Structures are given as C-alpha cells and as structure tokens.
Amino acid sequence: MHVLTEYPILTILIFLPLAGCLLLLPVWNCRVSARPIALGVALLELALSVWLYVSRQDLPGVQTKLPGYLLSQDAPWIPSFGIRYTLGLDGISLLMVMLTAFTFCMALLVSWNSIKEKTGLFLTLMLTMEAGIMGVFLALDLALFYLFWEVMLIPMFFMIGIWGHGRKIYSTIKFFLFTMFGSLLMLLAIIFLHLLHAQQTGLATFGLHDLLKTQLPADTQLWLFAAFFLAFAIKFPLFPLHTWLPDAHTDAPTAGSVVLAGLLLKTGSYGLIRFGYPLFPQAAQALTPLFYTLALISIIYASLVAFAQEDMKRLIAYSSIGHMGYVAIGIAAWQPVALSGSILQMASHGVTTGALFCLVGMLDERAHTREIAAFGGLWGNIPKYSFFFLLFSLASLGLPGLNNFVGEFLVLTGTMKKSPLVAALAFVGIVLTLIYTVRLVQEVLFQKERQPLPLADLSLREICILAAFAAVAVWMGIHPAPLLDLVHAPVQLLTGGGL
C-alpha cells in the first residue's frame, strides 16, 4: 500500500513524456529508431495509469487537506507569489489520465507511417503535449494549471501548421486566436481572484482549495465566472465559439485530430467541473439557463450541419460539437446522475471519435480523398475496415451496449430531474445524430460503388489500433459500473458542496 506514496507518482505521470523527448535527441533524424522510443514512453505512461486504477483501493487518500483525493503532492514553487506545485488525483482526474495515456498510444500508432518528414520534431511535440494535458488534469494550483494549459496548446499549433493539409495556415492561426483570447481572459480572472483572496486573508495563494474560501460579491463572481466560462467554452466548443474546430480537424494530421477530439476538448469540460463551478457556484447557477441554451443550440445546429457535409472528417468534427453538447448539459444540470453521465461521456466521446478519425485517416491514406461521394460498396471490398467503421458509427449514434449510450442516457436522466424541457429538446439531437450517421454508413459502406478504387484492407497494425478502441468501447457500454464507481465520490462531493 505505501509503495504508491513513497514515490512522486503524479510528477512521473507529467514528466515521463518530457524525459522521452530527451531520449529522442540522439535519434532525432532517424525515423526508424525514434518511433519505437516515443511509443515505448507512451506505453509506460499507459501502464502507470492503469496500475493506478487497479491499485486505487490501496491508495490511502488525503483526508485532511484534500477530501476525496486518492493521491496528492504539494511543494513550494514560487513562494514570493504564493505559487505552489500542487497536484491531486481523484476519480475524475484518474479517468482523464487513463484516457490521455490511451489516446496518445493510439495517436502514435496511427501516425506510424503517415509522418515521413521531421519525425523527431513531430514525436517531441506529441510527448510534450501529453505532458501538458496530464498536467491540466492533475494541477490543483491555478497558476500551475494555467502553465500546463498553455503547454498543451503550443504543440498542437505547430502540429497543424507543419503536418496539416489544405488551408493549414488559416486553421492554425484561427485555432491560435480563439484559444489565446480565452486563455488571456482566464489568466486575468485568475490573477484578480488571487489578489482579492490576498486582500481578504493576507495569504498570497493560487491554490484551488484556498481560493474556494474567497468571499466574492455577486457581480464580481459573475464577471470572473464569465472569464473562466469563455475560456472553457471555446475548448468544448460551444456555439457560437465552435468555428475553429471544423477547420482545425479538417486540416490537422490524423494523429492531431485524434488528440484534439479525444483530449483537448475534454480539458474545457474538465476545467468547468474542477474550477469553474466550485469557485463560482452562485454565478454558475445564475447562468444555467444560458448554458443550457448554448448546449442545446450546439447539439441541434451541429447535427444539422453535419448532415450537409461531404467531407467525412468535417462531418465527424461537427458530430464532436454535438456530442460535447450533451457533456455541457450534464454539467449545467450540476446533479449527481447528470454530472456522472457527463464525465463518462467525456471518456466515451474520446474513444469513439478518436477511432472514427483514425478510420477516416486510414481511408484517406489509401484513396487520397475524404469525400463521401467518392466511396460506396466498401462492405464488399474491404470488410475488416467496414466492420470497424460500422461499429464506431453505431457507438457514435448511441446504440445500447456501446459506450456513448451510457453517458448520454445518464445525462438525459439526470437533467430530466432538473429541467424536463431541456432533456426533451436534447433528445431531438439523438434523432438527428441517427439520421446523419445512417446516411454516412449507407453511402460509404452499402451504396453501389461509384468508381473503382483499388483499396487494401486493414494491416495488422491498423487492426490492433481499432481492436483496442473497440475493446474499450464495448467494455464501457456493457460494464460501465467500475468507471461510475470511480467518479462517484468526487461527484458527490462536488454536487453536495463538499469541495
């Protein structure tokens, strides 16, 4: 039991990928040697996160300072400004850590042959981004959180700009402007909250659990929450702050799209759950109708636009906006069942959409096009590929027995208790998702072949990638209880005012 607390496990989770960057330096220009090193580091990260999950019952927890947490680390970092190196792992962050480690393994595997130039730089950016995302899910000091928030964005900026396709420069600049605008507003709010707490208590701190005790007038709380909400809503993304996402997805390399959909979108929803709602509960409650409205518009609008898309990658990008709208509704309800559903949907969406982007990338490598109109009859030509395409399409539309169904069902069930009208309107989005998904599957897999395309079926590497995604999707759909048990305690503390 004590072996897990004798070592800085949380620090290792963050800095192991950065150590991998150093290992890449001697083989920077050797693609054959660099790829196994990066994958080995990512697999070690995955093994460590799974070990933490399996051993979670043996973790002593932190009962005094951080109730509900399994592990924590705390040390002074910049004492003159009250900035500390504070990390914490509870059930929510553990789920996100496992999702992060798994997604990066899959992203590295799917890019194995597609990244042929500047491979060392690409792999270094991937590992740096993994470190940043791990830091976002573990940081409990707002200054530290903001540092990791920026660290995770910079590699994606270069990834789209260097290895992207189409209008990659336009998409890169748009991604940068949207995310930087939200980030700067959040930074101003963090600094203001820090100064206000110091004025009230004489204690200079950026620690979350200290700042929770800050006395905030109603109007101040509204302004600060608005700044946090805007930064996180851009990441979701919620309508009308969504326009950067389809462009970024369309022009990013496949691995970039997998990480973007699987993880970067989740940092926005995680930030609201971990920081936004606990710090500003009254403001969050006051703006709940606005949050509901934006989430519903995102679901219905994104579904309608997805139906009109001819590019498969762009269709999946809009579907991501719709699926994240259900996450937003569950958070807005701020009710145990709905919030648990949102957290599970965050993980489910990362698995399903990550797999779909892998599938589209694999098809693009073969046919050099992503246009739906270029395909047809794939079920008879490449049956292994078609099986996985159908499986993850069914998961995306929420078929019972697959992962997306559980999260969406819990979100709608919990929201029904708080706002039946919102739950009923959100159900319309499920019907629209069914329509555009069936259209995609029908035209790509089962419709008569439009033109002869000599396509090879899946390789062993690609089968392993998709089988791993499929195993997780089926497990989450059939037996979600272990993951719901994992997030139960922190959800109860959050919704019950314990944090």
What does this structure look like?
With 499 residues, the protein is mostly helical. The protein has a domain at 287-499. 74% of the residues lie in helices and 3% in strands. The chain is built from 20 helices and 2 strands. The protein has helices spanning 9-24, 31-54, 91-110, 119-138, 142-163, 168-201, 208-211, 218-235, 244-251, 254-279, 281-286, 288-307, 312-333, 336-367, 378-381, 383-396, 403-418, 420-446, 460-478, 481-495; strands at 71-78, 83-89. Strands 1-2 form a two-stranded antiparallel ribbon. Strand 1 (71-78) and strand 2 form a beta hairpin. Helix 1 packs antiparallel against helix 4. The radius of gyration is 22 Å and the shape is globular. The two termini are 26 Å apart. Mean pLDDT is 88; it is low at 1-5.
Instruction: Please outline the major beta sheet.
Output: 2 strands, antiparallel
- Rounded radius of gyration (Å): 22 Å
Low-confidence stretches: 1-5
Total helical elements: 20
Biggest sheet: strand arrangement: 1-2
Strand content range? under 5%
Order of SSEs, N→C? HHEEHHHHHHHHHHHHHHHHHH
What is the SS-derived class? Answer: mainly alpha
What's the SSE blueprint?
Blueprint: H1 9-24, H2 31-54, E1 71-78, E2 83-89, H3 91-110, H4 119-138, H5 142-163, H6 168-201, H7 208-211, H8 218-235, H9 244-251, H10 254-279, H11 281-286, H12 288-307, H13 312-333, H14 336-367, H15 378-381, H16 383-396, H17 403-418, H18 420-446, H19 460-478, H20 481-495
Antiparallel strand pairs: 1-2
Helix pairs in contact: 1-2, 1-4, 2-3, 2-4, 3-4, 3-10, 3-14, 3-20, 4-5, 5-6, 5-10, 6-8, 6-9, 8-10, 9-13, 10-13, 10-14, 12-13, 12-18, 13-14, 13-17, 13-18, 14-16, 14-17, 14-19, 14-20, 16-18, 16-19, 17-18, 17-19
